[in-house]
Each structure stands twice: as C-alpha cells, then as structure tokens.
Amino acid sequence: MSATTESAAEPTSEPAAAETAVPQAAKKTPAKLVFAAPRRGKPPRHLADLTAAERREAVVELGEKPFRADQLSRHYFARLADDPAEMTDLPAAIRERLTAELLPPLLTSVRELACDDGRTLKNVWKAFDGVLFESVLMRYPDRTTMCVSSQAGCGMNCPFCATGQAGLTRNLSTAEIVEQVAAGARALARGRVPGGPGRVSNIVFMGMGEPLANYKAVLGAVRRITDPAPGGLGISQRSVTVSTVGLVPAIEKLAAEDLSVRLAVSLHAPDDELRDDLVPINNRWKVAEVLDAAWAYASRSGRRVSIEYALIKDVNDQAWRADLLGRLLRGHLVHVNLIPLNPTPGSKWTASRPQDEKEFVRRLEAHGVPVTVRDTRGREIDGACGQLAAATED
Questions:
Q1: What's the whole-model pTM score?
Q2: Above 70 in pLDDT, residue 7?
Q3: What does the pLDDT read at residue 20?
Q4: Catalytic: which of 134, 176, 210, 308?
Q5: Catalytic residue among 252, 273, 385, 393
Q6: Which end of the chain is more exposed for a tag (fewer CB within 10 A), N or C?
C-alpha cells in the first residue's frame, strides 16, 4: 500500500521528557542473543544442498553417469517434480535409488492456513527431526511472493516478535530453505492457488530466523533459487530480499559476494537508547554502524536498501523519531517500509494510531525519504511480519 504524499513537516521540536523515555517494560538487562545454533542431527543430503559440480560427483559416487545429475536437476528445479514416477527418462532400475539418495523428502506440511480468498497461504512445516517452521505464499495481481524461514525459531530475542520470543531451535539447511520455495512453486504451477497456474516471482527472507546468522546455508539457498534452470529455480537475484536485524560483519561479507539481491535492515528505532531494547543486537552494533554497513552494501550492489520499521503505539512512532530517522536516511539509496505492528499472543504492544502513522509518513517524505506502509497480508492466519511461531493448532 503506497503512502500518500502530504505537505512538508513542521520544524522539528525537541522531544519532551515523556517522549524520550524508554518504555518501562523495556528497561532491563540486555536480552540474551544466540548466534550459534544448538547442535542437532543434520537433515538428509539433498540435491539442492549441492552445486552443479557436487551433484555430478554425488551421482558418480552412486555408480551412475554424471549426466544423471542434470536429469535430476531438471526434474526438481525446472519441472518441479516431487514424484519419482514422473521421472521417466531415468531407468526404473536406478530411479528409486537416485531419488532416495538425492531427492529425499525433507518437509511435511502439518498445517496449512489460507486467507485473502486463498491467495495467501501459510504452511507449518515439520522437518525430519520434528522441528517446525513456517513459510507464507502471497499472490498479488502482478506478482507472487514467498516469505521463507532460514531458521527454526530465532536467537535475536526482539521482544515484539513472536519468533524472537520462541528462541532458536536450529539452523535450516540450504535444501530445507529451497524446498519451501519449491513447494510454493508447485502449488502455483498445479493451480492450487486461486488465479490459475502461475510462478513464484519474488522471495523474501523474512520468515522465521535471522538469515545472516545462518550465512552459509542462506547464501547457498540464494544461489539455488537464482541459478538458471535447470541448475536452479531461475528467479532473478533482483527479486530476492535478504533481511537482517543488523549483523554488521555479515552484511559486509554479503556485500563482497557481489550479488544483486536487496538488503533489508530491520531497524525499528533510529536512536540507540530505544533500539538497544527493541532490537537487542543493537547492544553490539549501534545504529550508525548498521547504517554504514547498509550504505556500503548499496554502493557495491547498486540496490537501494530497504529499512523495515514496525510502528508500535507510543513506543517508536513519535514525530521526533520520524524526523531523526529522516535525517539519518536522507540522501542515501534507501526506501522505508513502515509495518503496522501485528498482534502476537500475550504482547502488551500494538499498532500505532492511524493519525500517528500518517504523521510519521509525512515527516519522512518531508525529508525526501521514500516510504511505503506495508500491506499486512496474512494477519488473520498469524502469517504476517513478526507473527510466525510455527503453531500447529489454534
């Protein structure tokens, strides 16, 4: 939903003492952060975990010719096949063995919820070890976006996010991430989503987890998602967004990959005093450091950075904070996504008042900062931003 441009903001006044105070609920010892995922068993090896060269090596190890890897890749990535019986160009004698070794089932849907007349679809997935995580497919008139998880749970402990409050269970493998996209692509191709057969056009790493805390698997998933078919799913890098709360060294590492994916920074506050509490990683890397890394990424990639900002009533939605944010961002290759806070069980915080949201937009635009208020698709099924908690029942 595009924000409406209004007149220029009034001159900024100094915030009153009541406005500058950190909410009482947030005054506490810095929240615990978990970067290293707990050690657990690994999911079975899958074709999507491997590069093209590694797939051929794996097939040779199984006693078959290297070209069989290309056949398997074509079935999985290009034809979106998930039934070995469909792979008729593979001799029956070797089909079951190759698919068992390189295309093992990774995810089981234990719950599927739909809203928006079936055009928003949330899946709760169960992995081989019983771990649960979620993905959300959102079909719009001009595009279909998949929101995928990179971890089961999250170790960043943001207090307004259901996933962050759940804690980190484990990292997902590259193939477990890719399979979320492949499953959505199958649903579209087979006409299971209203609107007729279609394809996934956009990927956002904004599901469960902090993507850059699972760097290797996420980078592998980006490669598999964007490699041309049949080596990958063939989705443009420019249609992929990788989100982060601000792991500065990982942002710098991502910039060095020379990808053209978009970087999204979950900022949620322009001042360190508040962000220390809302986004606990800020106790390690402050706002200025995070933004400097983001600008360096924008400079190297040529892509504008998306600043994600959840508007929370009487917490971070003051006009003076909008002005501060505008001053920090103006003149940079950037776009702000304002997100009306989505409700989560037991949370005392809620979305901003409509008039405060409108004023926040007005002030950012007065600083020349492009801003959009995000469409909160999936709120009814706990599939919107900050709501993913992998619940299997109401």
A1: 0.88
A2: no
A3: 39
A4: 134
A5: 385
A6: C
pLDDT of the residue at 135: 97
Assess contact for 167 and 153: CB atoms under 8 A: yes
Burial class (CB in 10 A: 0-12, 13-18, 19+), 313: middle
In order of 60, 170, 209, 350, the CA distances from 277 in angstroms are: 53, 24, 18, 16
Angle of helix 248-255 relative to helix 215-226, nearest 10 degrees, comes to: 30
Beta strand residue intervals within 106-217, DSSP E: 108-115, 120-126, 132-139, 144-147, 151-153, 168-171, 202-205
Structural tokens at position 331:
């003149």
User: Which domains are delineated in the chain?
Assistant: 47-102 (1.10.150.530), 106-381 (3.20.20.70)
Identify whether the C-beta of residue 336 lies closer than 8 Å to the C-beta of residue 364: yes
**Is residue 262's pLDDT more than 80?**
yes
Whole-angstrom Cα distance, residue 356 to residue 351?
10
Q: Which two tokens stand for residue 243?
A: 């989100």
Indicate the average pLDDT of the chain.
Answer: 89
In the residue annotation, 134 being an active-site residue is answered as yes
393 is catalytic: no
Question: Concatenated DSSP letters for 78-96?
Answer: IS----GGG-TTS-HHHHH
DSSP label of 312: B
Place of tokens 């904004």: 206
pLDDT bucket at 377, cuts 50 / 70 / 90: low
